[in-house]
Q: What sequence folds into this?
């Protein structure tokens, strides 16, 4: 058993991936599936860093070594390492493959486990993510699902995934529905790096010979920005346009946003963000309806005065292939209607040539 060099692409060959960075570093972004066993917590890392800069590198290393030793001992006594078999193989990483992960690897190897260190640490993982975004997405046969707000695009994607299609659910990964009312109750958006990691992890598993369905998006989904490596191929890809009736869209929005009836002030505060985009008297009427829980007239006017004009401007500017879109009409956006619509889309798209065949 010897120490060898392993990169991010090798992580699937290990029994576990262990992130030994501080909890704050881990929360910002980490390798999917990694377990956080910090050798320095956030405060300890701050203390050691301060001493390193303001006092002495030697004193910082001495203090840090004592902290690391205590924390490794605590982890080894904890439930994660309990009952691991002799042939267990973990891959450990820190910020750049330095002393934090090397220290932990040394102790695990002394115990007898074939522990290995990720060469380059998190920084190598980050380069791997950006490479995946740059190279893999450009090679995928994207199919962009578009349509005005209330067309159930996200639900259609979910139905396509349930039927076995490859789906890149950007709004799901971003934890946001991408509109002024798009914040998902109880869901915190990931960091920008965390979002990109999630996208890369999904893309890594796609078969480039099969279509990948993705929703049309603007550059921003809440506070997340789509990287150019994703946004530019999305804007150039063939389009699937859902043409649902106005009544079906309204009924769908009333079901999808029914939770606002339980918190009318939250809805009113979100509508207030449209100040400057709508006349004051219109906003006052909408906020009044929100507070009175009158959602049907509110969403009816939102469709007519906000969402549809916004769709007409943004989608037709940003989707190069929209005029040649495959159009799917429907008057039923119930669960059964969405499943049937997804099946129609999958069947017709199966007849489209792949990128290789088209070239």
A:
């Amino acid at each position: 058993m010897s120490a060898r060099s392993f990169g991010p692409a090798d992580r699937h060959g290990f029994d576990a991936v262990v992130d030994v960075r501080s909890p704050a570093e881990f929360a910002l972004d980490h390798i999917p599936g990694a377990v956080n066993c910090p050798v320095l917590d956030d405060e300890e890392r701050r203390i050691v860093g301060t001493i390193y800069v303001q006092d002495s590198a030697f004193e910082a290393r001495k203090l840090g070594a004592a902290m690391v030793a205590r924390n490794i001992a605590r982890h080894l006594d904890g439930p994660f390492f309990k009952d691991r078999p002799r042939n267990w193989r973990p891959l450990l990483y820190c910020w750049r493959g330095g002393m934090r992960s090397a220290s932990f690897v040394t102790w695990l190897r002394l115990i007898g486990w074939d522990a290995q260190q990720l060469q380059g640490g998190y920084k190598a993982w980050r380069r791997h993510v950006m490479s995946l975004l740059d190279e893999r997405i450009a090679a995928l046969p994207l199919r962009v699902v578009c349509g005005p707000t209330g067309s159930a695009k996200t639900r259609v994607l979910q139905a396509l995934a349930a039927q076995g299609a490859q789906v890149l659910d950007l709004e799901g990964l971003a934890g946001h529905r991408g509109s002024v009312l798009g914040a998902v109750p109880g869901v915190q958006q990931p960091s920008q790096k965390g979002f990109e990691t999630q996208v890369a992890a999904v893309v890594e598993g796609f078969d480039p010979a099969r279509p990948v369905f993705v929703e049309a998006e603007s550059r921003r989904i809440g506070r997340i920005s789509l990287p150019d490596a994703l946004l530019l191929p999305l804007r150039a890809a063939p389009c699937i346009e859902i043409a649902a009736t106005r009544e079906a869209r309204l009924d769908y929005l009333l079901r999808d946003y029914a939770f606002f009836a339980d918190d009318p002030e939250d809805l009113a505060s979100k509508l207030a963000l449209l100040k400057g985009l709508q006349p004051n008297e219109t906003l006052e009427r909408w906020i009044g309806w929100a507070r009175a829980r009158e959602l049907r007239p509110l969403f009816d006017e939102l469709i007519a005065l906000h969402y549809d004009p916004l769709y007409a401007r943004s989608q037709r500017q940003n989707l190069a292939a929209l005029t040649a879109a495959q159009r799917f009409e429907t008057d039923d956006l119930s669960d059964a209607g969405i499943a049937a619509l997804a099946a129609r889309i999958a069947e017709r798209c199966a007849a489209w040539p792949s990128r290789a065949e088209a070239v």
In short: Residues 355-359 have pLDDT under 50 and may be disordered. Residues 129-358 form a domain with the Rossmann fold fold (CATH 3.40.50). Residues 295-318 form the longest helix (24 residues).
